Amino acid sequence: MLMRTDPFREFDRFAQQFIGNQAPGTWSRPTAMPMDAYRQGDWYVVAFDLPGISPDAIDLDVERNVLTVRAERRPLERGEGVEMQVAERPLGVFSRQLFLGDTLDAANIQASYESGVLTLRIPVAEQAKPRKIEIANSDSGQRQIDA
Fold it and tell me: pLDDT tens digits for 96-122?
């Protein structure tokens, strides 16, 4: 099971609508990235929206049961004499942390990046999958039931 970890995410979005991003070089909390998460058979799939971010600017780390996704959107290279008219796309560091339950196999996470979407596939651990348990019955032998 996946659990959300940033209780201030909605507050940050609200504040950014009215205050905007801080000036370059000043400290601010890393911006959260939108995500979808769902279960598909024996896998949890998590998709993060990271438009305009180069794959080499994405960093994934797992420590204990915490998955950290960190990405940086850098400014586009502009030639001489370019005067910016509108700059609405946020730049800087985006991050997200997810707590991975004990039922997930954090050692075998698969990651792919296509069309600005980072997709992680996290397998369900073998010990968490449903299994059959044999029941011994002295009258008629053994039978199976679902666990």
Answer: 999 998 889 999 999 999 999 999 999
- Cβ(68)–Cβ(93) under 8 Å? no
Taking alpha carbons only, the member of 94, 102, 16 closest to residue 49 is 94
Q: Answer for the pair 124, 43: CB distance below 8 angstroms, yes or no.
A: yes
CA distance 132 to 143: 10
Query: Count of CB atoms within 10 A of residue 37's CB?
Result: 16
Residues shown for the chain: 147
Give dist(CA 54, CA 56) in Å, integer: 5
- Asked whether the whole model's pTM tops 0.90, one would answer no
**CATH number of the domain at 2-146, out of 3.40.50.2000, 2.60.40.790, 3.30.1830.10, 3.40.50.1400?**
2.60.40.790
CA 138/CA 11 separation, integer angstroms: 62
Q: How confident is the model at residue 18 (pLDDT cuts 50, 70, 90)?
A: low
- For 10, the enclosing helix (H) or strand (E) is helix 9-19
Q: How far, in Å, are 59, 107, 134 from residue 54 at the CA level?
A: 11, 25, 52
